Amino acid sequence: MSPATVFFLLFIVASLLLTRRAARLTRSADDFYTAGGQLPAWQNGLALAGDFLSAAAFLGSIGMYLGQGYDSLVYAVGTLAGWPLLMLLLADKLRALGRYSVAEVLAGRFDERSVRLMSIISSLTITLFYLIVQLVGAGKLLQLLFGLPYLAAVGLVVVLMVLQVGLGGMLATSWLQMTKAALMLLCALLLAGGVLQRFGYSAPALFAQVDRLSHGQALLPGKSLSDPLDALSLGLGLSLGLLGLPHILLRFFTVADGRAARHSVGWATGIVGLFFLLNIFIGYGALVLVGPAAPFHDAAGKLLGGGNMAALHLAALLGGPWLQALIAGVAFATILAVLAGLAMAGASAISHDLYALWLCRGQADPQREWQLSRLATLLLGVAAVLLSTLFQNLNIAFLVGLAFAIAASSNFPVLLLTLHWRGLTARGALAGGCCGMLAALGLIISGPTVWVGMLGHARPLFPYANPALFSVPLAFAAAWLASVLDKTPGRSIDAAQPRADTANQAPVSSGPAMQQTDWPPAQHRNRKTT
Asked: What is the mean pLDDT of residues 442-446?
């Protein structure tokens, strides 16, 4: 049995055992959606980091260091910059005003079904795009390592995903994310330590070698950042996109209070920051150790398996087949864990937001809702398999960009204004969300990535690959203008209650009515979290 097979079987068995244990502890919708809402801050922070650190943050970023050098560091800094904003702007208020999902925050303020539906569509779109990307990555990895047919590979991954989420819910997903984040840090420490050992544990010696081999180019911005506006738009999309990702925002409902939510983000920021710091040494180590090594390249000089395999080749160089197998196994566990988090967010959007909040207007039977969430997990898995099969031979990088662009342009503006601006009306929220979503979608399609790279046109209609610099201000402007021009009388809406006060109530409280100008609810103004 090969080392890769040993580690893959070990991770699969471990994930199933975690799921079995979590299934025994999951007895209610509260347990399913939020793991009972009692995760300690450090555990939730570790799970938050696990939700965010996908295979792209590991394999993809190291491959980007090998191919483009400095540009990969900019991607890391851009995403890392979003974490303090997440803690300052959203964490506490989301936890105070939501019970199971972000849509409840909107449902608590706006008694408009169209606003809720817009939020649901946006969340499902982002989640499905991410699912497709992760499934394609998992399928290609299993194809490369074990020679499995693509459909069999993604089918195996989806079966594991459905079992974990459908049976174990958020508790199983959290445990899987925590385990995966710890393993990723372990692998990053091993690889970074191995690289530095080759250079006498001297970072200046490593960077000096990088400078010599690349003639200084790997330590300077590359072609992807040559246009300042495009680089600024990329950074804005990465930073603000984090604040609108459904599977990240869902994590704020798994802790006891707002203070724990903020501390969770603090833990996640430290973990993600440490990981990206280690990636600098790993990525530049791959550039100087794997880049010139002929055994890792084909006859045409291309890296075997493509740029995403740079970390695996570096592991083989530093620690032989067992370290390479460990990195491959952790990469698979990473994809599986991110898929579980995304499936959890998608199932919540379908069963709780679409069915319980939108269709049943908050009066759904909790048991039926819980059963539907399991069915929704299966339906999401089937849809993702079919769509990933269609996209398996295409460049799907634009789907990641589109997911971040929609999150930054639709979810984030509406959430920020809902939580911080009393003047926002239902029409304003709807206008901002729809304009942001359509603008991000339209600009990505008409930009160089899709219009030229995929559709084959000579020139793009929109000159920039990253739309956030244009779509985000448009969303805010649309929300402001529609709210200012809205002359309809204030509608009565339900006051959202903190989850701790409604632990035994229906998913959406039916508190006393108030006007839209009376927001946030009086019990949350100047609220001090303990």
From this structure: 91
d(CA 250, CA 247): 5
Angle between helices 258-289 and 203-214 (to 10 degrees): 60
Residues whose CB is less than 8 angstroms from the CB of residue 108 and which lie 6 or more positions away in sequence, other chains included: 97, 98, 493, 494, 495, 496, 508, 509, 521
Residue 291: phi, psi to the nearest 5?
A: -50, -50
Q: Are 384 and 346 in contact (CB under 8 A)?
A: no
Dump pLDDT digits (tens) for 86-121.
988 888 888 887 777 778 888 778 877 888 889 889
Contacts of 501 (CB under 8 A, 6+ apart): none
Structure tokens at 329: 């196994």
355-399, pLDDT tens digit by residue? 888 888 777 777 788 788 888 888 888 888 888 887 776 656 667
The CATH number of the structural domain formed by 3-392 is 1.20.1730.10
Q: What is the mean pLDDT of residues 73-92?
A: 84
Reduced to 3 states (helix: H, G, I; strand: E, B; else coil), residue 11 is: helix
* Alpha-carbon distances, residue 112 vs 97, 116, 409, 416, 427 (angstroms): 17, 7, 21, 18, 9
Instruction: Say if CB 454 and CB 398 are below 8 A apart.
Output: yes
Q: Give the 3-state secondary structure of residue 54.
A: coil
The whole-angstrom separation of Cα 344 and Cα 347 is 5
Listed in order, strand segments (DSSP E) in 168-224 are none
Domain segments of the chain as ranges: 3-392
Task: List the one residue out of 295, 293, 322, 347 whose CA is nearest residue 6.
Answer: 322
Distance CA 238, CA 334 (A): 20
Q: Which among 1, 7, 400 has a CA at the least distance from the CA of 183?
A: 7
pLDDT digits (tens, 9 = 90+) for 481-522: 999 998 765 443 334 444 444 443 334 333 333 333 344 444
Q: How remote is the C-alpha of 480 from its chain's centroid?
A: 28
**Cα separation of 29 and 61, whole Å?**
37
3-state secondary structure 447-490: CHHHHHCCCCCCCCCCCCCCCHHHHHHHHHHHHHHHHHHCCCCC
